Amino acid sequence: MEPMEPLNIAILTISDTRTEATDRSGQTLAERLTDAGHTLAEKRIVADDVYRIRAVVAGWIADPAVQVVITTGGTGFTGRDSTPEAVSVLLDKHIEGFGEHFRRLSGDEIGSSTIQSRCLGGLANATVVFCLPGSTGACRTGWDGILAEQLDSRHKPCNFANLVIPGRGQHG
User: Does a cis peptide bond (omega within 30 degrees of 0) precede residue 133?
Assistant: First the structure.
């Protein structure tokens, strides 16, 4: 079997209250991606503010060294949840199936409450972007159930890794 090609992945936690010491969701994602052989390009925390979120994500999308952006938090329906509004306008293509599949997996864990998840995925400037809910359980579900395979360049019949690896730009 061919070796997996590691990706440079940036993690953004969106929260008005979390700090590096209390950011279990971001840490869970960072641990899982490095355990899988990927590189943590950067990890940040930003307040749940549409323009702050958008600025950080846009900067990573513009950075050729970042191939994947994963956000955690701000995807619900409370007053300050604004991740979908901040990120969706930056995407060139939306991955409709990401949110659908996440909610299917999450439904097995939390039942009908999963309909309140506005998680999303997309492609922008040869960077894949995934927005997950802020709970540690949701981050585990998103990584273990979808992202671990889709960010593995060996996964067949197709994966997102091969869309962002320079020189590939295809599913393969």
Answer: no
pLDDT value of residue 116: 79
Amino acid at residue number 127: T
Distances, alpha carbon 85 to alpha carbons 46, 51, 123, 160, in Å: 15, 10, 16, 23
Contact 42, 60 (CB under 8 A): yes
- Cα(109)–Cα(83) distance, integer angstroms: 23
- Reading the block at residue 130, the tokens are 């995934």
> Is residue 84 helix, strand or coil?
helix
pTM above 0.85, yes or no: yes
* CA dist., res. 127 & res. 114, Å (int): 26
**Cβ(81)–Cβ(107) under 8 Å?**
no
Mean residue pLDDT of the chain comes to 93
pLDDT digits (tens, 9 = 90+) for 115-171: 778 999 999 999 999 999 999 999 999 999 999 999 999 999 999 999 999 887 654
pLDDT at residue 172 tops 50: no
Sort residue 147 into left (φ over 0), alpha (ψ -120 to 50) or beta.
alpha
CA dist., res. 108 & res. 131, Å (int): 20
